[in-house]
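Anyone have tokens for histidine kinase? Sequence:
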Amino acid sequence: MRCSSLSSRRAAALAKAGCVGAACVAVAAVLLDLWVGTFRQPVTGTPLLMSAAVVAVVLVLLPRLSAAGVARAACGAGVVSLVCSLALHLRSDGEGGFGPAASSAYGAFEPVALLVVLLISARRVTPLGAALGVPLLTAAVVLRPLAIRVHEGSTTVALFLALLTSAALAAGLTARLVVAAREQRDERIRLDQRVDFARDLHDFVAHHVTGIVVQAQGARAVAAKNPELVEPALELIERTGAEALESMRRMVGALREEGRDGEAVGGGIPLPVNSGLEGVRSLVDGFAHSGARIRLVERGPLDDIPAEVASSIHRVVMEALTNVARHSHGCGTVEVLLTAAPGGAVDVEIRDDGDGRRALGTGNGRSGSGYGLRGLRERVSLAGGTFRAGPGRGSGSGVDEGGWTVSASFPGATAVLHGDGGDGRAAGIRAGMGGIG
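Reply: yep, here.
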């Protein structure tokens, strides 16, 4: 939500600049009226001064008022200005003027202040308030030059004020639409983040809980014949549970911060500890205790992978290993391949030699809700990659025919490749044997 925070600060700065500009224009209009002597006229000065004073008070109070208060203040300012115009009209002589005083019978400050009130009203008030206040303000601004008498000069001024009224109304409505669009975008981003949080929490909890269940089952199986293996299994269960709790605390804490401050800590979704390639190596090391032989093969330079792609690779490996522990019957070997291909693509493939078809009983795949694989497909797609999961040994040769393969490819993930020249030699191999069983 860092971009949202920057846009909010920019909008606030623009709003302050607009307020300063409007204040400068209003002050200039007041000085012009004082210089011309608008408020010193013997007949027109008193109503003009009273109307201008009311509008000035409304203008000063507007930033502190609620939407309903702004609507009431706008209606009040419009009514007072129209009453003043009516008073000027009734006090005019028989020919519709005040003689020499007619030229200064309307000042500059009041129309300017009313235009500012109109702009703020269009920006802030409810539709009902706008329906009441906007017509009153428009009439007050446009009809003031015509209150004394209708002639070519006053008509020209009235048309000019009508143009300014339309511009102020358009500016207020535009600002209203921009703010509404920004709020909708921020809300959509917050909802997307919460979905990502929920998906991340599901991935980590499912992985750790599956490990706990497998270790508990293994401990129970060996408790009678090899009681000395129970203690290491219990220690591993304790460590796995602590890691799951830590992941949940971090994500729930981030959700609380996001709800309190309106933006996520760190400007985005907090990635769990070791969520990149180091996390993949930790997953492989931890899975070695489940009873299956697992091997990690790294091919090509993998140091230039962006953090988002590395996090997606970590989630693919985590979900695949979780599914192996849950659903793969008779699995003896698991292989994890990370390949930095020529052209910048990065591929990850996890395959096992278990009987995936027997797990479901229908020959179509493994049992389970499928939510994890659907979430992985969405995550990989958002990172610009392609995802596949299904029976078969995949593209490598380290696992026998059958089994299950999960793979993801991220084209152009690294900008520059260097190191092994694409000859396919392993940059590193990690292997482990099961500790329980």
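The mean pLDDT is 70.
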